[in-house]
Fold:
Amino acid sequence: MHELLRGEPGSKALLLGNEAIVRGALEAGVGFATTYPGTPSSEIGDNFYRIAQETDLYFEYSVNEKVALEVAAAAAVSGVRAICSMKHVGLNVAADALMTLAYVGVKAGMVVVSADDPSLHSSQNEQDNRYYARLSGLPMLEPANAAEALEMTRSAFSLSENQRIPVLLRTTTRVNHSRSVVELGVFSAGHYRGRFDKDPFNLVVIPMVGRKLHLELLRKQKELQEIADASPFNVSSGQGSWGIITSGVSANYVRDAIRDLGISREVRLLKLGMTHPLPANLLANFLQGLERVLVVEELEPFLEEQVKALAQEKGLTCVIRGKGEDLLPRSFEFDPLQVRLAIARFFGLNYEHAGSAAGAELPPRPPNLCAGCPHRATYYAVKQVVGESAIFPTDIGCYTLGILPPLQAADFLLCMGSGVSSAGGFSQVQNQPVVAFIGDSTFFHSGITGLINGVQNNHNFTLVILDNGTTAMTGHQPHPGVELTPRGRQAPRVSIEAVVRGCGVEEVITVRPQQLKKTIAALDSIVKKEGVKVVISKAPCPLFERRITGKKQQIVFEVTEECDNCRRCLDELGCPAFACECDASGRVKITIDEVLCNGCAVCSQICHAVKPRKKSN
Amino acid sequence: MKQDQKALGRESWRVFFAGVGGQGTLLASRVLGEAALLVGVHVVVSEIHGMAQRGGVVESAVLLGKIESPTISDGEADVLLGFEPLETLRAVRKCNEESLVISNTSPLVPFTIASSSSSNYPDIEEMMSMVARRVGRLITLDALELARNAGSELTANMVLLGALLRHGDLPFDRQAIERVLTMKTKKSFLEMNLKAFELGFQQQ
Structure:
């Protein structure tokens, strides 16, 4: 049985924030879950995926976040409790649906999880998605740790159902990817089948309906503000004339700092868990009698600005600060020392930090495409054909790592799908050839529309779809084109080649990138043609293939005495299984690490000195 | 009794793990966290999942006792457990002059160095002496060799965990870890993991 279904009520477990969200949803009787994978949210979907194999819960990896939200919304308006999870930038994709779903509302509880990524551990920006709560008018909960993630998820379903509005559960990486002790609660019986009652004049947002629903949403805001004022997740503690207001993961740093600095008698702390709508009455009461107030929140001054406005409205003159050069920054995640220093400085405390055993300047260890990754072969082949002068728009996935030397096949990137659309734009304004890259999962997510746009508008580029048969970067989740599954090889539900042809692309070639000569020849035959051309470069992610098939590797490659140190293997292919050593006499020797080599044979096609041999164990 | 005395002497333990993707740092930090749960010590474990599936830097933190923050600031680690010598030195910024550092000495050469005939992997002894100069105490061991003795290179993380339990002055003892391993490890790997843990624990 799945770990998250097993824990006895009342017992304790060490859960990841993401696991706690899943457990909280199960305790709330969730019947329907959707997602599109993205770090730091991926484990939410991955756990639901496994749980759905053992229960009546419906789960899907949707084709993108907008679709995931719309599918879940249909369940929630049919009376089935639903959860939809995504990373912060995923909510941009889903935002179109989210804004109006706030008007339309839900019948059963619906929770939308947005996993933000301060410090961009694995993202293209660090946008603060708390503003989506203000933009859409949705109530928002912000857990500070795994225990709160569980409790807040569970209670978000009731809040949503009572108010008939989706609830935004906003986390950050350090909540999603930290483990702490949670107390497990009781499962309530879930509904897996619902009933849809037709009600078009509340559910179909033609303008006259939308106008009415907007007023209804504003009415709900008033009720929600009262709920926020009374929410058990908004807790004020302590006494004194200094105040600190905080929420989310920052609350941990603040509580530790208050203890470390020994100022618990001087400080009143307001820890907010429900941060939208702003608990205005609670805040106004909190601010009464305070002289100085520090707002401690990661990223944008979301609370700070609202608190300042509130104080002005209430005629309160206390000093309220938060962001600022001498206090807290608007970029990157906090750490304990930074918060301690900011609090000490703001309240004029004497505090000195002992200092750190600073390190030395060291060689970096950048992330890299794995040894034997088929994307490397594709990049190599493309470079052989179009050289360095072509423009390479790229997309979001493992293959974004093609940016690094020696491949350097990434020139422009905005978001999922932008590789294809921007390729069209580049082709219209300059004369260099344009070769765009996109992964298979990303192609389904949002590459298709860009491709259709290119065909319709007579753009001129080659799109290379790097089809490794899975969503590799986020942990091998399936997508509509997957062939390799735990149950064996199957025909894909949706054929990428058929979709590409269906979009009106006439020049389509499918290649096996590890057959270098054929791949180069195919590319050569296609890139100079006019219009939109597509090359589907198809080879499974080796990590995924090995895990699914359990296939043992028989062959590895080695560099033989024929090596003349031309270094093409290192300078053009850059497979991390290669190494270059200098012996005592200063002679350079290129070697292949047997443990890392996965036997793809690409190097042996570019160098006569590389030969196969049987793997030693 | 021993545990109580320790708990009276200190309120918190900050353990920082630094390694390379694929070395099992996250599993080791989770096992430590589970042991804390088992004996009722407050614990937070923080992991960062990077961009690459293999070969990038992996860092995690285990915070025991009266701490709620999920991260460790520069200069504030009580213990640094280094899974790879270059990564130990890179992570030494987390330490101060009183910190304990336990480091594996067998290297994993980054591709940026491996592929270059002009740059070399820094001298391991020199790196370790740089670490030793900056911190309170340094313990080094060849975790890979010991893991091979235990039966698989993949158990190097358990070797390091063993050394941590021996020297880390943590608020629980080795039995807690052994119980977690027994509960959470696949049967076929259990004996090997316990042996690796024991070999690490024996390291002076």
Q: What stands out?
A: Chain A touches chain B through 61 residues (CB under 8 Å). Residues 439 and 466 of chain A are 5 Å apart (CA to CA).
